[in-house]
TrEMBL record:
Domain Transketolase-like C-terminal: residue ranges: 749-882
EC number in record: 1.2.4.1
Reactions it catalyzes: N(6)-[(R)-lipoyl]-L-lysyl-[protein] + pyruvate + H(+) = N(6)-[(R)-S(8)-acetyldihydrolipoyl]-L-lysyl-[protein] + CO2
Protein name: Pyruvate dehydrogenase E1 component
Residue span(s) of domain Pyruvate dehydrogenase E1 component middle: 511-732
């Protein structure tokens, strides 16, 4: 952009300090002042004699030539508000433009009718009409010329389709014969007509597992996930698992969606790793849901600056071909200047105004502009198109993007929201407009030149409450053209296929060492999990398929021993000497590295886990993500991404380390996880375990491998679940696996550990994870000090027990004539004696999930409230979850049952001072900090 001030003579003479701008090396000594003076004088003369616009043009050409000759000058953060690719550089368009225009018209019609039909009286299930109408040309250029299907020799592309554009994608599939007219009428009706008889609202692979590949409607995640998908493609290639050199990731996003922090949050990652296999197409229709994206500004210019600054290749598609002649006549730069200075809010207004208004408002500000369009009618001015609707302009951009090397590319395509539908075009309310009237549809039909008569349209309304869908016939030239283009490009898209070959999983010998326990040494469950992971990575079959992922915490979780052998993945290798290179466990990077070290980005790490966990379908290669993180920063921070991971039918292990509200001493409120099991319970695909012992971990992780990567699931290719384990940094005694251990109980959620001794009153003590040592100590105290016999139970999964209970009740509801099922936990505890006391390092709501199915008196202790920094004994006394608190709760339950006197409860309370954290101020704790 030009400045509004002219340099003063003092500034020209260089007697004042020079401003350093955009990193230009003006602070360096001038080795030839006379030559520099000549250049500056020449430039000053050009400004004085030819004007600023001419000087600006020459400067831009000089910068362009400097980049061509690899002279290291910074790139401009933004360029003029015109197309990046000038007409003379546009490639020859290889398709039949008229045929493709007809195809677009058919798809546009069916997409609009689909949504309008879904909102007929008595149904009214919503939908979005305007988004696809604005982006139809963008998609169709891709489908007809660029998007490679799974049968392509190069392996096929991955396409992230904007969620609100799904009606257009369904309409294309209908024309291809992949969907029926009946299914289009059943848009957003997924169960009332039977399984798979309708269509999901948005791209949901879990709901349409043979169709959609990537869930995209959670705004912001498309950008993030597409970056890490492209990166994972390179990871697979560099590690020699699959040749992905001919595969590309395409992501379609909206300009309003760019406001989500996740959308732009990882763009520097794509540039740093030179992901030229990634193309973003941002549909810049200048509107978000209820109004302009940035009415007083220019979103395309803003985004261009963001992406250029981050190191991306930026291609702007702003104007259609009808503007080319006007720009060619812009010898003074007045038109470009007007384009540069007109805000988006005005352009949105122009999209709905008359040609006369545009002539006066846009072109009327300068006599030179008026003369430029004096030969044009008002109607011609009104129809001057935006570049995102011009097939040739879009093709040129896509072609340039696929040929660009060394950078990811973003295409910023300017469009009109609701394009071709008069009732919707450019209007702020398009998001809420779900239904078109008969008059609206007739105008739409006429604009698209659809061969549908008034009689046919009116009759369809009488019979179905909606306009008719249109198909030109399987032998029509348009359909033959569509199918031929898709065949040449490797098959129809989107399409999800599972081509991965079954894995040979390790046998029992792999888990033998973990089942031996820790002997005299106390071991944290985090260390037990990591130890098994290391053994897995040595396995000849699955070892190379393990993808360790961590957000800058490998050393915290004791995984630095993997650095020398597995190495951290970096496509550029390690081009420096590591500061800890002399240490045995020094940090090592390699293009063939196995470990994904995501820096301080849980969102990025989860995106990598999603890409790895769905590689069995996207690439036909089973990969096993093992993402380990602070449990507090999992479901609470990236729960939406985990939901999308589940929707994408990804598999793998999520390991919430340093779990619990009182185990991470010294870290305080923000790090204290007392609720992640509850958040995990809200995700139907997540199987959560909270193991206490290493031998439990061995069975749980073996089960995870078998369920996800064995022959489970309805089709024998594995279950589409995600295993979430919460493990702890606190060292605890690890017993050897007992003979005849209840493996079924471990996997279903509860197993008996030790029977109480003695003949006194009895209680049942339940605990999970790091809470088990508390009930173990409580068992001893009850026996030795109070004459009470207590059984101990390890609850490996409150969540799975609760799901089993709910499933049993649902089965009973749906089978009233059959013998009722009993929840597993009810069966387990049916014959036990005495009240049941449950405790965990989580809030009470976690163990309370099973309260309905626990026979008899059920008491729960938990860490409710915010966490804080202190020692573990102090924190546990504060929350009343330590061994002494368990004892008092057990005695109180017995007193309520009339089995002991209440004086015993009061005596225990006074002795242990469970209401006073200062009573344990002198209790020492063992290591295992953050």
């Amino acid at each position: 952009m030009t400045e509004d001030v002219t340099p003063t003579d003092t500034q020209r003479s260089g007697t004042t300090p020079t401003v350093i701008h955009e990193g230009l090396p003006t602070q360096l000594p001038d080795i030839d002042p006379d030559e520099t003076r000549d250049w500056l004088d020449s430039f000053d003369s050009m400004v004085d004699e030819r004007g600023r616009e001419r000087a600006r043009y020459v400067m831009l050409r000089l910068l362009e030539r400097a980049r061509e000759m690899q002279v290291g000058v910074p790139a401009l953060r933004s360029t003029d508000y015109i197309n990046t690719i000038p007409p003379e550089r546009e490639p020859w368009f290889p398709g039949d433009e008229e045929t493709e225009r007809r195809i677009r018209a058919f798809i546009r019609w069916n997409a609009a009718v689909m949504v309008s039909s879904a909102n007929r009286k008595g149904l009214e299930v919503g939908g979005h009409i305007a988004t696809y109408q604005s982006s139809a040309s963008l998609y169709e250029v891709g489908f007809n010329h660029f998007f490679r299907g799974h049968d392509h020799p190069g392996g096929g592309d991955q396409i992230y389709i904007q969620g609100h554009a799904s009606p257009g994608i369904y309409s294309r599939a209908f024309l291809e014969g992949r969907l029926t007219e009946e299914q289009l009428y059943r848009f957003r009706q997924e169960v009332q007509h039977g399984a798979h008889a309708g269509l999901s609202s948005y791209p949901h692979p879990r709901l349409m597992p043979d169709f959609w590949e990537f869930p995209t409607v959670s705004m912001g995640l498309t950008g993030l996930n597409s970056i890490y998908q492209a990166r994972f493609n390179r990871y697979l290639h560099n590690r020699g698992i699959k040749d992905t050199s001919d595969q590309r990731v395409w992501a379609f996003l909206g300009d309003g969606e760019m406001g989500e922090p996740e959308s732009l949050g990882a763009i520097r990652t794509a540039a740093r790793e030179e992901l030229d296999n990634l193309v973003w197409v941002v549909n810049c229709n200048l509107q978000q849901l209820d109004g302009p994206v940035t009415g007083n500004g220019k979103i395309i210019q803003e985004l261009e600056a963001n992406f250029r600054g981050a190191g991306w290749n930026v291609i702007k598609v702003v104007w259609g071909r009808e503007w080319d002649q006007l720009l060619a006549r812009d010898v003074d730069g007045v038109l470009v200047n007007r384009m540069n200075n007109t805000p988006d809010g005005a352009f949105q207004t122009y999209s709905v105004e008359t040609g006369e208004y545009i002539r006066d408002s846009f072109f009327g500000s300068d006599p030179r502009l008026r003369r430029m369009v004096e030969h044009m009618t008002d109607d011609q001015i009104r129809k001057l198109p935006r570049g995102g609707h011009d097939y040739r302009k879009v093709y040129a951009a896509f072609d340039a993007a696929t040929k660009h090397v060394g950078q990811p590319t973003v295409i910023l395509a300017k469009t009109v929201k609701g394009w071709t539908i008069d009732a919707l075009e450019g209007k702020n309310a398009t998001h809420q407009m779900k239904k078109l009237t008969q008059d609206d549809l007739k105008k739409f039909r006429d604009r698209l030149y659809m061969p549908i008569s008034d009689r046919d349209l009116e009759r369809s309304y009488e019979e179905t409450g909606s306009a008719p869908f249109f198909h030109p016939g399987a032998d029509s030239p348009e359909i033959e053209y569509m199918l031929e283009r898709r065949k040449a490009l490797g098959g129809s898209l989107p399409k999800r296929e599972v081509r991965a070959k079954a894995l040979t999983l390790p046998g029992d010998a792999m888990y033998a060492e973990l089942k031996q326990g820790g002997g005299k040494h106390k071991i944290a469950t985090t260390m037990a999990v990591v130890r098994l992971l290391k053994d897995w990575m040595k396995d000849p079959e699955i070892g190379k398929r393990i993808v360790p992922i961590a957000p800058d915490e490998y050393r915290t979780f004791g995984m630095d021993s993997m650095f020398p052998s597995a190495k951290v993945y970096n496509p550029a290798g390690q081009q420096y000497e590591s500061v800890d290179r002399k240490l045995l466990l020094s940090y090592k990077e390699s293009p063939q590295g196995q470990m994904l070290h995501e820096g301080i980005s849980e969102a990025g790490a989860l995106a990598s886990a999603t890409a790895a966990g769905s590689a069995y379908s996207t690439h036909g290669e089973h990969m096993i993500p093992f993402y380990i993180f602070y449990s507090m920063f999992g479901f609470q921070r990236t729960g939406d991404s985990i939901w999308a991971m589940a929707d994408q039918l990804a598999r793998g292990f999520l390991v919430g380390a340093t779990a619990g509200r009182t185990t991470l001493t010294g870290e305080g409120l923000q790090h204290a996880d007392g609720h992640s099991p509850l958040l995990a319970a809200t995700n139907p695909a997540v199987v959560h375990y909270d193991p206490a012992f290493a031998y439990e971990i061995s069975h749980i992780m073996k089960s995870g491998l078998e369920r996800m990567y064995g022959e489970g699931g309805f089709d024998g290719t594995g279950e589409n679940v995600i295993f979430y384990l919460t493990v702890y940094n606190e060292p605890v005694a690890q017993p050897a696996e007992p003979e005849g251990v209840d493996v079924e109980g471990i996997l279903k959620g509860i197993h008996h550990v030790k029977a109480g001794e003695g003949e006194g009153p009895r209680v049942q003590l339940l605990a999970s994870g790091v809470g088990f040592p508390w009930v173990e100590e409580a068992q001893r105290l009850l026996r030795e000090e109070w004459g009470v016999s207590a059984d101990t139970w390890s609850v490996t999964s409150w969540n799975e027990l609760a799901r089993d209970g709910a499933a049993a009740e649902e089965w009973n509801l749906l089978h009233p004539g059959e013998s009722p099922r009993t929840p597993y936990v009810a069966d387990k505890l049916q014959a036990v004696e005495g009240p049941v006391v449950a405790v965990s390092d989580y809030m009470r709501a976690v163990p309370l999930q099973i309260a309905r199915w626990v026979p008899g008196d059920y008491r729960v202790l938990g860490a409710d409230g915010f966490g804080f920094a202190d020692t573990r004994p102090a924190a546990r006394r504060f929350f009343h979850i330590d061994a002494q608190s368990v004892v008092v709760q057990a005695l109180q339950a017995l007193a309520d049952a009339g089995q002991i006197g209440r004086d015993k409860v009061e005596e225990a309370f006074n002795r242990y001072r469970i209401d006073d954290p200062t009573a344990v101020a002198d209790v020492k704790q063992e290591g295992g900090d953050a």
